[in-house]
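Q: Hi! First time doing this. I have a protein sequence and I read that you can turn it into a structure. Is that right? Here it is:
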Amino acid sequence: MPVREGTYGLLAEFDTPSQLVRAAKGAYSAGYRRMDCYTPYAVEEAAEAIGFHRNTVSLVTLIGGLLGLVTMFSLETWISVWAFPINVAGRPYYSWPAFVVPAYEWTILWAGLSAAFGMLALCGLPQLYHPLFNAPNFRNGATSDKFFLCLESTDPRFDMVETREFLDGFTPVSVVEVEY
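A: Yes, that's right. Below is the predicted 3D structure, encoded as structure tokens:
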């Protein structure tokens, strides 16, 4: 049966994280790749079960810190050597030891800001709307005590009837069709 226009996917609700992890592992081994788990707290086994391994926030933080270091060191060099050179007590214009502390401070500042804004951007936040907000069981339990597995309709393996039967095999509390 082809997927109806406007269908986001199928959402299965579970009572325990172990049931969710079992269903996620089963879906991944069955060939589903466009799926996500929603839990009220972090469940690392669920992330591993759906093949989620990327964490690029640390790389964004490193790049931000290096950019801060280079920016401040370049700014101080430009000011001291070319823009406004001042000869104080016969010291050289390019006195790099004096540049270390402000460059370090900018490294920390830019790394922290890059981590914060990079995490928000990589998570796709702020997200004011998501199709799962339309599912009533998701609204009532996603942040308190329920565990959800959503298989998206954009997955090549997704078929409405077969996928519903597949999810019913894991004995969820409910399986709901989510519309856009």
